[in-house]
Amino acid sequence: MTTMKAMQLLGPRKTVLTEMPIPDTPVDGVLMKTRCVSICSTDISFFEGHLYPSQYPIVLGHEYLGEVVDIGPELDAAGHVGIGDRVVYWGQTDFGGFAEYRTLRPIFGGQVKEDVFWADRNFFDDQRAAAVKVPDGLSDLEASFIEPTTGALRSVLSNPPHVGDRVLILGTGPIGIIAGSVIKRLLAPNSIVSVDANAHRNRYAVEHFSQHAYLPEELIADVPDHSFDYVFDALPTVKVDDEEKDPRRIAMRKLKPRGRYVLYGASQEMQKFDTWLMLAKGINVVSAPFDVTSFPMHKTANVIEAAMNMLATGIVDGKKLLSTVCRFEDFDDLVKIFENYRFTPDLKTIVDFRR
Q: Which family does the record claim for this protein (predicted)?
């Protein structure tokens, strides 16, 4: 067999199922047969046109779980991975998951390697990706959450709340729920609440971590300004008619002076931040940088191991995060999931490649 099936994005909202050559194994990498890929809001942002590649077509999918079927002769894999092992990775601009096979040049925990290049989105990236071997006790579907847990954990570890902080999670999709779960269980907040316009996701938030899940209008009416020390913003692109009801401006009003606003959600569309509130209150807006000259990929290799352990021990509950499984061969259903993602009551959808 020399070809594989893949889902290509030809342009915003234009997808096709196509045949592509199976890639060659890198001399210092692995070839993996895809097992599961979970759909990320970043995939949806590319699909909708809020994020965009340097050129089309592109194969989306980066919350990836694969089985190693070939190892390059120059890969230092001893003690890390072998044929038949399951692997999850975390990369910056690396996609290609919605295909039956993909290659990877991995960095494992404890290794220090780099292959840096300038990405077209204004930061230095690494041709390698942080990777971890999935232990036998973690199912494929649960292991699919290692990648998003890694992303949330990078952000929280880079900018953790202080002990006793009053915490607001802004947006309770999977990343918001993972971040809230980690903060609640490990970082000793005074309180932790959340806000989301999706009532279904508010119910999930309460189930996982939130002491109270507000709708935006409830947060405006019921919570005084200057109530929180720390905001974790996991929202995607936001567009509202009334700027006073922009959730990011609302969150800044609810922050105390010198409060910390941690930005996670990525969009290449400009978002509105209230610069007057930032100045008046001295709000500290921070993030975990994509740029590998600031946060090297070999450090993320240690974070992905910690993320895997959080799922294995139940600090992050992968079983509760899963809502829907869609088989890759059901391509029409997969496209409908992309089209309706913003309105679904589901929390997380995993695309299953196994037969």
A: Belongs to the zinc-containing alcohol dehydrogenase family.
Answer yes or no: are the C-beta atoms of 149 and 303 closer than 8 Å. Answer: no
C-alpha to C-alpha distance for 155 and 189, rounded to whole angstroms: 16
Q: What's the N-to-C CA distance of the chain in angstroms?
A: 17
Cis? peptide before 257, omega within 30° of 0 = no
Could you identify the residue written with the tokens 């890759």?
328
- Which amino acid is it at 15? T
Q: For the chain, how big is the Rg over CA atoms in Å?
A: 20
State the sign of the Cα–Cα–Cα–Cα dihedral 264, 220, 254, 201: negative
Q: pLDDT for 3-40, tens place per residue? A: 999 999 999 999 999 999 999 999 999 999 999 999 98
Residue 245 CA to residue 92 CA, distance in Å, equals 32
pTM above 0.90, yes or no: yes
Could you give the CA distance from residue 182 to residue 8 in angstroms, rounded to a whole number? Answer: 34
- DSSP letter (8 states) at residue 79: T
Burial of 41 (0-12, 13-18, 19+ CB in 10 A): buried
Question: Distance between CA atoms of 52 and 66, rounded to whole angstroms?
Answer: 25
Number of residues written out for the chain: 355
49: left (phi over 0), alpha (psi -120 to 50) or beta: left
Task: Read off the pLDDT of residues 291-350 as tens digits, 9 standing for 90 and up.
Answer: 999 999 999 999 999 999 999 999 999 888 888 999 999 999 999 999 988 777 788 899
The residue to which tokens 């002076």 are assigned: 257
